[in-house]
Design brief:
heterotetramer, A mainly alpha, B alpha/beta, C alpha/beta, A: mainly alpha, ABC transporter involved in vitamin B12 uptake, BtuC, two-stranded antiparallel sheet, 13 helices, 1% strand, binds adenosine-5'-triphosphate, binds magnesium ion
Chain lengths: 316, 496, 316, 316
């Protein structure tokens, strides 16, 4: 099967990360008595899912050669919008839809500015990050919104078949995005676009549609993360999501996505998000000083990418 | 000719991961000699150059200058030894001015240590003028046409007064006029005793300016012999390992109905009232000097650029094409002139690139049928004989000729009826060239139409049924095959 | 030479600028409610304009705001200065210009201030420790060989440090053998507070008997983790500040006691002091606005409502 | 004068921004009575200088095609290091030198990781951002450091010939960086490197030296900014500089630098930094609601880049 060698190589790249994640897990299982317990693994999954979902949206943006700094603020928008709607008495399902539509629209605005204003993604989404946070504060008066219905806040607490509900949502998003990236024309087009936008255009790909859709998707997934977070915290939180853009970007890049576009995988991003949570969770379990832990997080992010680079060059 | 070579390489080998790029290659270049280096794509020509210049380090073998063994580890050392090269991939910084590119890495300083900008621009202007290149040295590289960029790269290298100058496919992007300028430069170098290494896929150039020729094949030295003792077909058989019949000898099939008609196409000052038609089974050539607007004509038809006015008919039906996707739906395929920047997603696989423009045909509800996708790629790779270990290889890792074939495969998959080839054989070896010509022949046999743009006169003349000649954006003449002659075409192209 | 200001000095309504430490939290919004209520009640007397940087870590931005405000020549400035030293030069300049200065919440190291209204944060922290001990006893939780944790909203913010130190030194006095787990910091992010607390519970299990959270966001995360695992009576939580989620936690028992300051009072009395100063009165150097302890027993008292949620007193 | 056409075009690009800045200044002069006062202009310059200096370092990094997310944390390092040294009794001059060397070394580490680890600059400096902040917190115990000598804290308050001392430092940095970028081989090598690293290498430019030096320079200038800020705020502040990377990047990009490398100017960055301060300053003078101001900042950053793009395309 010589024809498939390239595919195997791709799997190897994610394999590197998987190896790192597994090694870390094994170390933690021996170093702490509580790491490898159902309860902690459940926590780990729950702690990862919010960033995990945002990072998947970010992966699309990064594959397309862009970046989205506004995801954190959009998490805040979702939190306040859904809380306002629910407190205002709207049923849960339409409220979720409206919140997702609002977040998707903000993402679409990013895409619009990038596509038609030719504003670099970094700047367009930096502006949105500021503006959306301002809107959140204005909407909420910078105050928490309490009084959400139990039916809504209860969701995040549910456990099905031993897995927390948040995990199922994340898992669903993983499946959907995996299919999108690997099995659909849309996914193929994003890779082509990120690799060479001019070649994509000349091959008949509607590049404006790609730009708009990746940022919209990122907005919607950030919105979804914000809704889940709101369910989990039981309140609409105006500061929700601050700084999340960095974790999401780090997850995707540690997972093998390249900021110059054209590469990145869903599984890689999932592993990247897991790695980052794992360091935090492990650090807490080991009782490491918070500041030293912060240093370790920084060093490990760099180290894992460095290691991956070494593997890449010695392999090829 | 002196007896001692200026540069002598013995038993040079170089291994890249998975590829033995060079295997015990010998090369000797004498002062005042123009030495040609030929071989198929991937034969190892550029690798030799980079080893001489210290960009790569050899695995084994010796290199000596004037009999003295040297170990060059970087470009600065090479420069000090009097070695200079015009590399195959344009190595200019696009955001910087011509002058800055000229002096990059060795700016002249004023007494106070600051860069002497006046010197930079005056010296650059002088050099350019001396080489007959007419351009403002303060322009940025991005503002220049590819041909002008190549001339700048050449001028930048030549003005250094080196003892050995290497040209790696300098003419790929040039038209006749600039080629003449380049040959003038090379002759001057030779006259002043400089050694020249000259790499090209256009074999007749070898016979125009070179003294000796070395043939490489698969990283191995095949033969070194004086140019006067050989001929094109012999060189080709050394390179390819078999002899090729007459390159341009393709079958011309009977023409069918009119497929494309263009009327009064206008776009700013670039295109003026362009009208022509193309019939099924026909090869319509577009010829003109660099910048005459050939690329603009086909991009306008293809919907890649907006036009001011003009009408396009396909099968007699009036069509308004505003986006490449519409052109594709109508059965038009474009192989752009700049394959790296416009034709290929280099960081993606062959499989992806081949199917890029035609996913609709192999999908259900927008889901790609992976098996069909792979089948199609595998079939195309076989049909076009793309040299690759796997359809999952990244296109960026292929040699130029094979990259070109991938783009052609892309349009074959679209079941295009009109194929537009803009400079399809740039940087491609004779073997691959002939394969592309055969392919064009095959397309016309199946009743497809082809528009062929080439700066390389023998190519258009050899293949086209008719040639539309462009001069400064207007198509002054359309010449029938019977009337083809170099002289007429060049005259029309110059607006005379 | 003291310049005479360009504005309508001494003419009513007086221009009063209120500068808070951060716009992103309920606490500072409460202060603004107090100040704006005063304006609403005395429309002919004062004209209140409010300012603040996005976050409490933006110290220099607050100084910039202060400088800009001084440029507008108000009659008085009411400021909750984030740093005790950074604002000194600007405040001294304003004071010399004849602008009245009322500092609230945080003491500024200059005598050129008309009055200072605040709570003692160190004291508040120590009250948190006392309450914790009280509830440990009430729940029959043995303290021998057990551990207590501090979850802090942010590293490097003075008032939080004061609260934490107040808590730590008092708890060490009250329970001499107690082991304090290294302080955890959560970037003022509720979800991080929640994850961190989950990890603390996983690591220390039943050894963990108390958690002190030093502001509302950290408290929200801590109480939610404790409530999710039904440990309300095994892990005693005391905290600072009030927001709807904290109040709900008091009612459910997930938090036993909260130390509530009187930001509303700081705002209202701050403006009132400013008016008095403008009109020439001599003011006390220091006014303690006090800390109110709210527990299950008094959370429903009508008197507590205004303190817990000053927005209920909003008049404008 | 055909020879100079290119130069004039460059000036035009900065001209766009200059026009925007001037229009905004004129509007503010009419809309507020205090904008065009010596005092306010002095404030404006003072408020811009810290970000202005960091943004100049960032400009080098961006011209080289990189990005530096660690500048904010390095500001924090400078603040804590110099405060510790001064409080420890070291004379001012050597303390400044040591702080700058430390910051330069951190920058060099960034460069080293990027050059030799082939780690993308975004990830390398993101790691440094985390790690350096952790180091700051560890060094300072997350506490402000007070007790700096008056000779040091007084510097930022000085006014020479009507201009605040910070302005002179900034101005000096502007001059030096301007000369570096336009007149020196070092500067032009950075442009070549950012525009086409392969071409730079083949032209004999030592690319490793360029990588190391731009990040080191960025580190040193961030350190300088941190020292000035410490002098201005009178304390060593562990949270100093949080989020500054975004302002610095925005300043450079609004000023015309391209994140893909090879372009950017000192004057452009200076104007970009001024624009951002101006919006903030004007917003404060106009007494605009903080949240609305945040929205305006976001919108204006995007708008100014968009406008520049329009001008660019209609010009050519
Ligand atoms: N940096 C590299 N890493 C791995 N393989 C390489 C590298 N550079 C060249 N090769 C391989 O070495 C072989 C020789 O390449 P080289 O560029 O010297 O060919 P060439 O004769 O110049 O071909 P062309 O006519 O297409 O320019 C090819 O198989 C090529 O794929
Ligand atoms: N990127 C560009 N920037 C500015 N002008 C351009 C650019 N590309 C083409 N032009 C101009 O447009 C006109 C037509 O160019 P076009 O590329 O169509 O010519 P061509 O005949 O295809 O020549 P070439 O051999 O360069 O492909 C010329 O005047 C050329 O200078
Ligand atoms: Mg080559
Ligand atoms: Mg062309």
């Amino acid at each position: 099967m010589k024809l498939f060698s390239k595919k195997n190589k791709l799997r190897l790249a994610e394999g590197n990360l998987l190896v790192i994640v597994i090694i870390l897990m094994v170390i933690l299982s021996f170093a702490t008595k509580n790491f490898f317990t159902v309860n902690n693994l459940r926590n780990l999954v729950r702690q990862t899912s919010v960033n995990g979902i945002i990072a998947l949206g970010m992966t699309f943006v990064i594959i397309s050669g862009g970046i989205d700094l506004s995801v954190g603020s959009i998490v805040g928008v979702a939190s306040i919008v859904i809380a306002k709607l629910l407190v205002g008495g709207m049923p849960i399902f339409p409220a979720i839809i409206i919140a997702l539509v609002v977040c998707g629209a903000l993402g679409a605005v990013n895409g619009f500015i990038i596509q038609y204003g030719k504003v670099p993604p970094f700047i367009a989404t930096l502006g949105m990050m500021q503006a959306a946070r301002g809107i959140v504060m204005l909407l909420s008066n910078a105050r928490m919104i309490a009084g959400l219905p139990k039916a809504f806040t209860g969701f995040a607490q549910l456990v099905f078949a031993g897995f927390p509900s948040l995990f199922f949502v994340w898992f669903l998003v993983i499946i959907v995005t995996f299919i999108l990236t690997t099995k659909t024309i849309f996914g193929r087009n994003i890779f082509a676009y990120g690799s060479n936008i001019e070649a994509a255009r000349l091959s008949g790909i509607n590049t404006a549609a790609v730009t708009l859709s990746v940022y919209t998707l990122s907005g919607i997934l950030s919105g979804l993360a914000g809704i889940l977070m709101t369910s989990r915290l039981g309140n609409g939180i105006p500061t929700a999501g601050q700084g999340y853009e960095m974790d999401a970007i780090a997850s995707a890049v540690v997972g093998g996505a390249s900021l110059s576009g054209g590469s990145g995988t869903i599984i890689g991003t999932v592993l990247g998000a897991l790695l980052i949570s794992l360091i935090q969770n492990g650090g807490n379990l080991l009782g490491i000083n918070a500041f030293i832990l912060q240093i370790i997080v920084g060093v490990l992010i760099v180290a894992s990418v460095w290691y991956d680079q070494i593997r890449k060059t010695t392999k090829s | 000719m002196e007896t001692r070579p200026f540069l002598e390489m013995k038993g040079i080998s170089k291994q890249f991961p998975g590829v033995k790029a060079l295997n015990k290659v010998d090369l000797a270049v004498y002062p005042g000699e123009v030495h040609a280096l030929v071989g198929e794509n991937g034969a190892g020509k550029s690798t030799i150059i980079k080893i001489i210049m210290g960009v790569y380090q050899r695995d084994e073998g010796t290199i000596s200058l004037n009999g003295e063994e040297i170990h060059v580890t970087n470009v600065i050392e090479a420069d000090k030894l009097g070695l200079a090269a015009v590399y195959q991939d344009l190595t200019l910084a696009p955001d910087l001015s011509i002058g800055e590119n000229f002096f990059m890495g060795q700016f002249p300083r004023k007494k106070n240590g600051m860069i002497d900008w006046n010197h930079v621009y005056e010296k650059t202007a002088d050099t350019l003028k001396a080489l007959n290149v007419d351009v403002n040295p303060r322009l940025r590289i991005t503002e220049l046409s590819p041909a002008m960029q190549e001339m700048v790269a050449i001028a930048k290298t030549v003005h250094k007064k080196s003892k050995l100058v290497i040209f790696d496919e300098p003419t790929a992007l040039l038209s006749n006029e600039e080629v003449d300028i380049l040959f003038g430069i090379i002759k001057k170098l030779k006259a002043s005793g400089v050694s020249v290494v000259y790499i090209s896929h256009r074999l007749e150039e070898i016979f125009t300016i070179c003294d000796n020729v070395t043939v490489l094949k698969d990283g191995q030295h095949v033969k070194t012999l004086p140019v006067k003792d050989t001929n094109e077909s012999q060189l080709i058989s050394f390179m390819v390992g078999r002899s090729l019949s007459d390159m341009y000898n393709i079958e011309h099939y009977p023409k069918g109905d009119e497929l494309l008609r263009v009327e009064d196409l206008n776009r700013g000052k670039i295109l003026k009232d362009i009208s022509f038609n193309v019939r099924r089974g026909e090869i319509f050539g577009l010829f003109g000097l660099v910048g005459s607007g050939r690329t603009e004509v086909v991009r306008a038809i293809y919907g890649a650029d907006a036009i001011d006015s003009g009408t396009v008919y396909l099968n007699g039906q009036k069509e308004i094409i505003k986006h490449p996707s519409q052109a594709i739906a109508l059965g038009i395929g474009l192989l752009p002139e700049d394959r790296k920047h416009q034709g290929l997603a280099l960081s993606q696989t062959i499989n992806h690139n081949i199917n890029l423009a035609s996913y609709k045909a192999i999908s259900k509800f927008n889901f790609v049928l992976g098996k069909k996708e792979r089948e199609r790629s595998t079939e195309s790779v076989k049909r076009l004989r793309v040299k690759t270990p796997s359809i999952h290889q990244l296109v960026g890792n292929l040699s130029g000729g094979n990259q070109q074939k991938v783009i052609i495969a892309k349009w074959l998959c679209c079941e295009s009826k009109l194929f537009i080839f803009d400079e399809p054989t740039v940087g491609i070896d004779v073997g691959a060239k002939q394969e592309i010509y055969k392919l064009i022949e095959e397309l016309t046999r199946e009743g497809h139409a082809v528009i062929l743009i080439s700066s390389y006169l023998p190519e258009v003349m050899g293949l086209a049924d008719r040639i539309g000649v462009l001069h400064e954006g207007s198509m002054s003449h359309i010449v029938e095959r019977e009337q083809f002659s170099e002289e007429t075409l060049l005259r029309y192209a110059s607006g005379l | 030479t003291t310049e005479t200001a360009g504005g309508p000095k001494g003419e009513k309504p007086y221009e009063i600028a209120v500068i808070i430490k951060a716009t992103d939290s309920d606490f500072w919004q409460y202060l603004l409610v107090g100040a704006l209520n005063y304006e609403f009640e005395h429309p002919d007397l004062v004209n209140v304009t409010t300012y603040g940087p996005p976050s409490e870590s933006d110290i220099d931005q607050q100084v910039a705001i202060l400088e800009n405000v001084i440029s507008t020549n108000p009659d008085a400035i009411v400021i909750a200065s984030t740093s005790s030293d950074a604002s000194v030069p600007a405040l001294e300049q304003a004071y010399d210009k004849g602008i009245k200065i009322i500092t609230v919440d945080n003491k500024v190291n200059t005598p050129k201030v008309n009055s200072f209204l605040a709570t003692d944060n160190t004291l508040g922290g120590s009250l948190g420790a006392e309450k914790m001990v009280e509830y440990l006893k009430a729940n029959n939780i043995s303290t021998a060989g057990k551990k207590i944790a501090v979850v802090s909203a942010m590293a490097g913010v003075q008032v939080l440090t004061d609260r934490d130190n107040g808590f730590i030194s008092r708890i060490k006095q009250l329970i001499p053998g107690i082991e304090l787990i290294p302080t955890r910091y959560v970037d003022n992010d509720i979800i991080k507070a929640l994850s961190t607390t989950e990890d603390l519970i996983t690591t220390y299990g039943s050894d963990l008997i108390g958690i002190f959270a030093d502001n509302n966001h950290s408290a929200d995360g801590v109480s939610r983790a404790v409530a999710e695992q039904s440990l309300s009576n095994k892990i005693i939580v005391t905290a600072y500040d009030s927001d709807p989620e904290e109040v709900a936690a008091i009612k459910s028992g997930a938090i036993k006691a909260i130390m509530v300051q009187d930001p509303y009072g700081m705002g209202y009395k701050g403006v009132d002091s400013a008016v008095q100063a403008i009109e020439g009165a001599t003011l006390p150097e220091y006014v303690d606005t006090g800390v109110v302890i709210v527990e299950k027993s008094n959370v429903n008292d009508p008197a507590a409502q205004g303190i817990l949620d000053p927005f209920t007193m909003k008049k404008y």
